[in-house]
Each structure stands twice: as structure tokens, then as C-alpha cells.
Amino acid sequence: xxxxxxxxxxxxxxxxxxxxxxxxxxxxxxxxxxxxxxxxxxxxxxxxxxxxxxxxxxxxxxxxxxxxxxxxxxxxxxxxx
Length: 81
What we know:
- The chain is an all-alpha fold.
- The protein has one domain (12-70).
- It has 4 helices and no strands.
């Protein structure tokens, strides 16, 4: 994974959703926490994955890769891995 800047920065909402998703919770749980729908959470994550260039990875690996890409770049809070 590249540690350079993202092709496009995340929107504030995408960053918020990816930060919540870093916990590993389901889309339904995240949607409840952020007062929206699971479909909206999925859409925000899909766009974040595209912007972080992790869409080529297997579906089950994208969330982890997105978090590992975004944290060192300062796009979401947390310790870099």
C-alpha cells in the first residue's frame, strides 16, 4: 500500500463512517450509531474505498486496507499500524 496522499481526500462524512467502521461493527450497527441507513453507510464506505484505491482487493479485505491506508495519512484518527 502506498503511504502517499489519497487520490482525493475523504469527505468529512466518509471519514466519519470509516472511523466508525474501523471498529469492525456491522453496517447496521454503524448506521444506528450515525443515525442513518445501512445502505448509506455502504455507499459512503464504497466511495472511501475508491478514493483510497483499495477496490482491487477482495471484498472482505477492503475495510481493513482502507483503515490502514487512511490512518497514516491523517485522514481518520487513530494510531498508524
